Amino acid sequence: MLNPRPPKELEHEDLRRLYVEAVNLAFTLLDGFGGFAPFAVVQRIDGTVLPFDTLDVGEPAPDARLIEHLTSLLQEEVVAQRVQASAVIFDAEVRPRGLLEPIDAICVRLEHHAQDPVTCYQTYRRQRKKLINGRVIVVPGLARIFPTKRPPR
């Protein structure tokens, strides 16, 4: 386990916990299987953080369709007032300022009912079959799951 640290831009403790859980799970999947399909982690209303069970989504879908499907299911969870924060995680590439070639990253789209959404890119590289985590790039996110910042009832 690489023990990722949440970026300082994540001020809300709920998002810090979600980030760490999401990146740890993604690193575990990368290390064990060499990659992963998009997935989600949620924080329930009671504060429990766990992977979001999508049940059976049928045939494997392209990543973009799977992310869309996860987003739709998470929106339903918000309407049903079962989650207060979410993270959608997928494998990505980023090109930090000053680099010519893109580098591998774990994209973590974080949303919380009481905070603006944020997207984090946890960069990583492989060195002799070992994963090495790099820096985290943080950018403002888009509200996809929580349409407003009203707390659940």
In short:
By secondary structure, this protein is α+β, with helices and mostly antiparallel strands.
Instruction: Strand order, main sheet: write it out.
Output: 2-1-3-4-5-6
Please give the number of β-strands. 6
SS-derived structural category: alpha+beta
Number of helices: 2
Global Rg: 15 Å
What amount of the residues lies in strands? 35-45%
List the keywords.
2 helices; single chain; globular; 153 residues; 6-stranded antiparallel β-sheet; alpha+beta; 36% strand
Protein architecture, described:
It is a single chain. By secondary structure, the protein is an alpha+beta fold. The protein has helices at 13-33, 63-79; strands spanning 39-44, 49-51, 83-94, 103-112, 115-127, 130-140. The chain has a 6-stranded antiparallel beta sheet, with helices on both faces. The protein is globular, with a radius of gyration of 15 Å. The model is unreliable at 55-59 (pLDDT under 50).
Describe the protein's topology:
Layout: H1 13-33, E1 39-44, E2 49-51, H2 63-79, E3 83-94, E4 103-112, E5 115-127, E6 130-140
Antiparallel strand pairs: 1-2, 1-3, 3-4, 4-5, 5-6
